[in-house]
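Journal club prep, notes for RB
We'll compare a predicted complex against what the paper describes. Inputs for the S-adenosylmethionine case:
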Amino acid sequence: MQAAYSPDYENALRRRENMLFFKRWLKHPSQMGTLAPVTPRLAKLAADLVENPSDLIVELGAGTGRLTRALLAHGVKPKNLVLVELDPELCVFLKETLKDLPECKNSMPHIIEGDATKLAEIIPESFKGKVSTVVSAIPFMYIPPIAREQIVKSSFDVLKPEGSILHVTYNPKSPLAFKKDLKQERVGKLWLNFPPGFVWKYQQGWPS
Ligand SMILES: C[S@@+](CC[C@H](N)C(=O)[O-])C[C@H]1O[C@@H](n2cnc3c(N)ncnc32)[C@H](O)[C@@H]1O
């Protein structure tokens, strides 16, 4: 087996990710949202927007771990990272592939097979109310509005008061409706990506 991060390892991993992602998309198209994982450039853009990588971080819809690896490369500590993923096959893939990373030599992220709408119930007790960023690539555009609302509410339930949600999407417009107590800001854009990608930041409070 090649060392993690060698070009051969990366290419082989990307091929496996793309195949598995596509297979899961055929089974659950709206849950997956897209045919393929986010590109490494979009993953890096989103991960680098995490302002305090030494804090407790949650990733929703971790998929095959493309964004997870960018978060770890940005300095997020595995023991401080909770990954929530609904698809059991993707959870197995995450466990199997993340352990190859040098960052995960001594500890692994907490991988939770579960539904992000119930985040506040499934997250470890030690994270509750102490998370500084929830990073989400859940396809808000394709899931029912009620589930979207529950994910946002559950995320704010586990976040610190000043914490934020970073949402990765292919939609240049915010997928969340205007709300008087929700600050919404587009903090990242990558037009030269296929498809173009965007990162939205949500915080509790009055829009300025
Ligand atoms: C667009 S993919 C994002 C994949 C990944 N973050 C990446 O780096 O490419 C969306 C992921 O969200 C997961 N998902 C969708 N709804 C979910 C939910 N309610 N709870 C947890 N995961 C969910 C899907 O199974 C899928 O893996």
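Talking point for the session: The longest strand covers residues 159-169.
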